[in-house]
Amino acid sequence: MGTLTLSASPLLWEQFLVGALDGEAGLRPELRSILPRWQRSRSLGAPSTGQPDEGPSVGSLALVERRARLEPVWHELGGMLEMLSAAPLPSGRVALLADREGVILATRSSGGDFTHHADYVRLVEGACWDETSRGTNAIGTALAESSAVAVVGPAHYAQRHHGLVCYAAPVHDPFGELVAVLDVTGPAGAADPLVLVAVASVAHAAEARLREVAWARVAAAARGGLESRLSREEGPVLVVEPMGRVSRFNAAARALLGGQGPMEVEAALGVSWRVLTDAALRGVALETRLASQGPAWRIHAEAVGTGDGRSALAVLVRLESSGVRSLGMTPGRADSRPVVAEPSSEGRAPRTLSRDLWGADTVVPPGPWAALKGNDPQHRATLREAERFAPTSLPVLLLSETGTGKELLARALHAASAVATGPFVAVNCGALSPALLESELFGHAPGAFTGARVGGAEGKLAAADGGTLFLDELAEMPPALQVLLLRVLEDGAYSRVGESRVRRSRFRLVGATCRDLDAAVRNGTFRSDLYFRLQGAVLRLPPLRERNDLPELAHALLRRLSEEEGLATPSISAAALTRLAAHPWPGNVRELKTVLRLALVRAGGAPVLDVDALPSGLGSPLSPGAQGEPRPAAPPASIPPSQPSAGAAAAGPLRELEARAIQEALALSGGNVAQAARRLGIARSTLYRMAERFGITLPSRA
């Protein structure tokens, strides 16, 4: 992903408005970047003055619908937005998530005086910031050019926005389609080029996470194996991912292309990603020359994990010398015209690779537990317990904090189960409204409600038949749906929304939540009969702050991140490891991954990643101890993962320290939750979750 920084003076902007700069772009270097963007804004009819209520806005219902369109990526993008807003950036900024049409779907403020100005210029949910509405601005220009963009002060087309500095980066789905934009905006006087690096890095992390999830979904439903194809084929074979990144190749392809690290397919084969996917989806072969005077090679492309029939999650490329005839190819076809590619002789769909949370490539199956890395005793004990339960048909309940790897564990349980050949279907119960969640789970009949699909929808229960259904954020499921789910678990019977016909689905259920289900049962938000029905096996992955293998995880993750960027892997200094160990890690391993990605960028290729490459606020204790010392990185005692009570896991000196720190921050902030969260150095949503876990009453989120 390229980056672009646009800046200009007020004088240049005024000269542009009166037409004095027309035709000057080729003569004045300072105009080469900004003038074409201003001219595009003018041709779109964007207002050059700007008003507080300028541009179209969408209502609350339309906003819900737009968020629903981003499902299933909404959960991942929402987590990245939380991470971006909680990053140690200067105060007085707002983090935004906009859809592919420039409509802001969610905002997170760092507080300060800028909050009022953000409302004034319509940096609010529902406002549209495409270039047609606002002219040159980071969100709209990032959408228009599919590039990370910084727009500083008067470089904004609308005069009302000259006091802003905006940093935005697009997010593409696993098929290469632009789906959203992440943005950080603040006062122009606080411009900092490192913020653009941070935003672009978080957007890159979001794309990587979406690819991981998509790869794992394909792996659950497919057969065969890309790994076996790569090793079995004698000729050159490679795997290409959006937007043309060559992710894997066998020895023959490595020798032919002369590459060791990451490469782009257009540079390697002279064929763009779009042309390659089109050939794969249409079933035609292509021809290329790897050198101007070299022999011609025929490209046979197979789509892996097709989306809407117009895109693919990856393409398996097999290269064949044009002088060699292979099984199924038409004799004598050595010209450059496309020929119809024959189906794979194996007759099976390829098993794909999934990338675990720490970046290791793992074939699923076999070896499903290898994806959950680490040598912490609690962590390994949980995996041993999971391995015992995996072959059974018992439901499994995962009670762990966010970012610890619950979905990875769920996928490993599926891969080691008796239904491993069936599908793995994941549903996030907290990402959808009750009505949408019911339709997503149970499906709906044609015309069941306004906006229902013409042919109806089968739903996730039908999709999971014969496999595993993973319900993430299970505690967020509304009571009415809990009753329906209980019936399905009893006899497999259910009906689609708007339909009386009884259907059946048999699946292995894995549920997960970061909430205290014992407390939810006591206060009536979670049904006790469903809770007892789910308690076949209870597993807990320890949070990162309670693990003793953080250095190992950090080194492994940094090695993988360096490989992705084509960089030499730096070592981590003892001081940096000490700083990492002192951090409370509310986002757990997912947060560690983002921190190390940012640190790798800031290190600038240095052989040792030192403290100065880490975010400045990292390692600040959640609360000082009695003597003013930071709290220890590891707890004094470990809690066995097989204990049934989630409340018991919250006991111990470390948790007491956290609860006391929250109470002290609230007292010092006069009960203001946002101020208390800033004092603690955590996101407001994290503070709500921790307070609920410790039984601390907070003011309503409203």
UniProtKB/TrEMBL annotation:
<protein>
    <submittedName>
        <fullName>GAF modulated sigma54 specific transcriptional regulator, Fis family</fullName>
    </submittedName>
</protein>
<feature type="domain" description="Sigma-54 factor interaction">
    <location>
        <begin position="372"/>
        <end position="601"/>
    </location>
</feature>
<dbReference type="Pfam" id="PF00158">
    <property type="entry name" value="Sigma54_activat"/>
</dbReference>
<feature type="region of interest" description="Disordered">
    <location>
        <begin position="619"/>
        <end position="652"/>
    </location>
</feature>
<dbReference type="InterPro" id="IPR002197">
    <property type="entry name" value="HTH_Fis"/>
</dbReference>
<dbReference type="GO" id="GO:0005524">
    <property type="term" value="F:ATP binding"/>
</dbReference>
<dbReference type="InterPro" id="IPR029016">
    <property type="entry name" value="GAF-like_dom_sf"/>
</dbReference>
<keyword id="KW-0805">Transcription regulation</keyword>
<keyword id="KW-0804">Transcription</keyword>
<dbReference type="InterPro" id="IPR009057">
    <property type="entry name" value="Homeodomain-like_sf"/>
</dbReference>
<dbReference type="GO" id="GO:0006355">
    <property type="term" value="P:regulation of DNA-templated transcription"/>
</dbReference>
<dbReference type="InterPro" id="IPR027417">
    <property type="entry name" value="P-loop_NTPase"/>
</dbReference>
<dbReference type="Pfam" id="PF25601">
    <property type="entry name" value="AAA_lid_14"/>
</dbReference>
<keyword id="KW-0067">ATP-binding</keyword>
<keyword id="KW-0547">Nucleotide-binding</keyword>
<dbReference type="GO" id="GO:0043565">
    <property type="term" value="F:sequence-specific DNA binding"/>
</dbReference>
<dbReference type="InterPro" id="IPR025943">
    <property type="entry name" value="Sigma_54_int_dom_ATP-bd_2"/>
</dbReference>
<dbReference type="InterPro" id="IPR058031">
    <property type="entry name" value="AAA_lid_NorR"/>
</dbReference>
<dbReference type="InterPro" id="IPR025944">
    <property type="entry name" value="Sigma_54_int_dom_CS"/>
</dbReference>
<dbReference type="InterPro" id="IPR003593">
    <property type="entry name" value="AAA+_ATPase"/>
</dbReference>
<keyword id="KW-0238">DNA-binding</keyword>
<dbReference type="InterPro" id="IPR002078">
    <property type="entry name" value="Sigma_54_int"/>
</dbReference>
<feature type="region of interest" description="Disordered">
    <location>
        <begin position="327"/>
        <end position="351"/>
    </location>
</feature>
<dbReference type="Pfam" id="PF02954">
    <property type="entry name" value="HTH_8"/>
</dbReference>
<feature type="compositionally biased region" description="Pro residues">
    <location>
        <begin position="632"/>
        <end position="643"/>
    </location>
</feature>
<feature type="compositionally biased region" description="Low complexity">
    <location>
        <begin position="619"/>
        <end position="631"/>
    </location>
</feature>
